[in-house]
Amino acid sequence: MAEKLTDIFGVDVFNEATMAERLPKKVFAALKKTIKNGEELDPEVADIVANAMKDWAIERGATHYTHWFQPMTGITAEKHDSFISPTSDGKIILEFSGKELIKGEPDASSFPSGGLRATFEARGYTAWDCTSPAFLREDAAGVTLCIPTAFCSYTGEALDKKTPLLRSMEAISDQAVRVLKLFGHDEVKSVSCSVGPEQEYFLIDKSKYLKREDLIFTGRTLFGAQPPKGQEMEDHYFGSLKERVAAFMKEVNEECWKLGILAKTQHNEVAPAQHELAPIYSTANIATDHNQLVMETMKKVANRHGLVCLLHEKPFAGVNGSGKHDNWSIVTDTGKNLLDPGKTPHENIQFLLFLSAVIKAVDDNADLLRLSASNAGNDHRLGANEAPPAIISIFLGEQLEDVVKQLVETGDAKSSKQGGKLNIGVHTLPELKKDATDRNRTSPFAFTGNKFEFRMVGSSMSIAGPNTTLNTIVADVLSQFADELAEAKDFDVAVHDLIKKTLTEHQRIIFNGNGYSDAWVEEAERRGLPNLKSLVEAIPAMTSEKSIKIFGKYNVLSEVELHSRAEIEFEAYSKTINIEAKTMIEMANKLFIPAVIKYASGLASSINSIKAAVPEADVSVQAGLLKETSALLAEANAALASLQTVVTEAAEKEGQEQAVFFKKVVFPAMEVLRKPIDELELIVDKDIWPVPTYGDLLFEI
């Protein structure tokens, strides 16, 4: 990187510094009020902002602009328009109005709507989200001004992931401010959600990727025997970076920094060919936009390096899958982190109240939180002894667990465990400050110092959904708390009693042990905690009476919007498994079975040739291999026929019934087909086997 990092950071972003430089002071002040306080934007202000944004973009080489939005596909969408307008003399001028900045009109007919819109009803609107800065993106199409927007239908329902997130951010801000005012903090005007999503991913060689139809069509390997070495030597985690990977990471960082993305940490993850990038925290909607950009950037940069970035939650069986740890906290506009326990958390009543609110929210709505982290890919991870279990629980750590125990058992907390010092036993090494609490990597929802780490989210998922749910359920509890405390005659006594009551009633959700153990599954069942093992089981939580009430109360999602999203989830699951099953059928028919027949024919020819040349020769090895190969081939062919039958049957079903059928019938049939094919891979000559193996994909980068 020739330029200094400080010189390139945010150069492609129409951020506050750029706006302050290019906008008149009154316009800049008005825009800041809109961003900070949610005040309505004056159309005249929008016109001036649009013109300044256009001039800035054109100076940087932009020819087009786009309203960049996040439909229910989980990825981003955009339609590009040039700045050109014709003049009467046959030339052009470059224009961009406030109206064009504020509102766009993409065709909404082909995006998932869950029945909100008929196919023939095409109109939808994108609305400028001025709280997330516009940015420039350069690619083969040139330089494009990207304007982050929300996306709604002609009738007003949200068709995207951003709109509910923004609504939920308003909800938790309003309710948190209510509680804080009861504590006497009248100076606090708003509360924002601070989010930092850690992104895990795999890198593989592009030339090998292109030889695997399963990776191309589904993002994961549907077949593949285990290589001689996997991750058991624990030598990849935090290991030194390979040159090719390091070059990729360097360019990803530079591209992210130009976009104002606070890319901070990079390292090798547990599985071979697996890596992670983590940013510094941002406000929830900006963090969501940035994470979408990170994923897009990784894919583009990987392609430039002859690599492919795999974001699927489980691209390879038998090795760790990829997640996206969603670190979440709430911070006042005065800079106070409401989840910071301080040095003596047992005395920090305000912290304990907000902690209690999160604990109650998670316990009361564990099904919703589980659903928010679910997709078809994540079904391969959750509860699979490599990631958080499918059961929602909260890890607090020794310090807070002790404080909670004191409150529940005695009604009063009089002490907090302290971290102290750690002496390593080498005089030349410094004495280290020791945290009061260890970490627990098996917990799906862990308190980590001054935030909660929601570890269940899938690597390919938008973080908008999990944060929308988390914001809404916590807002609901804070609303209950504010209502109760506002009526209290003695506020201090009421707060103390509310904390004790809440922790006593919801302590079942707190678990600091090994979340991977079978004993915990049994214990969780005794506690009455839900164990939703798949997305299909979790989806009905979205349309329960409880969910409709909570999301509707805070105008985050209406009943109609919730039902539409449930329909989208069922449909997306069915489509995902259907594509995977059809890909397996094609690969088995066109690749694996012909390759095995070729190998078996070679064995038969070898046996016949040897017997003809030397009748007394021992051909038992070839005969044994031929017999084993033929048996597995017959097994694979029978499994293939069965899979074809159930896929045809699935096509006749719809909605939830179809999704359940894919989960309970089609998916198991896929596993039955995979088993003999994977066994054959270990027998058939490598020169004959038609696709790169796990060893080729994971270790040859």
Which properties best describe this structure?
single chain, 701 residues, alpha+beta, Ubiquitin-like (UB roll), Creatine Kinase, Chain A, domain 2, Four Helix Bundle (Hemerythrin (Met), subunit A), 3 domains, 6-stranded mixed sheet, 22 helices, 13% strand, glutamine synthetase activity, Gln_synth_cat_dom, Glutamine synthetase
Helices and strands, with pairings:
Layout: H1 5-8, H2 16-22, H3 25-37, H4 43-59, E1 62-68, E2 80-82, E3 84-86, E4 92-94, H5 98-102, E5 103-104, E6 124-128, E7 135-139, E8 142-153, H6 162-182, E9 191-197, E10 199-205, H7 206-209, H8 213-218, H9 243-258, E11 263-268, E12 274-279, E13 282-283, H10 284-304, E14 307-310, E15 326-332, H11 349-364, H12 366-372, E16 394-395, H13 397-410, E17 421-422, E18 432-433, E19 445-447, E20 452-454, H14 464-486, H15 491-506, H16 518-527, H17 535-538, H18 545-553, H19 559-613, H20 620-650, H21 655-681, H22 694-699
Parallel strand pairs: 1-8, 16-19
Antiparallel strand pairs: 1-2, 3-4, 5-6, 6-8, 7-8, 9-13, 9-15, 10-12, 10-14, 11-12, 15-20, 17-18, 19-20
Protein name: Glutamine synthetase
GO molecular function, one term: glutamine synthetase activity
Domain GS catalytic: 161-592
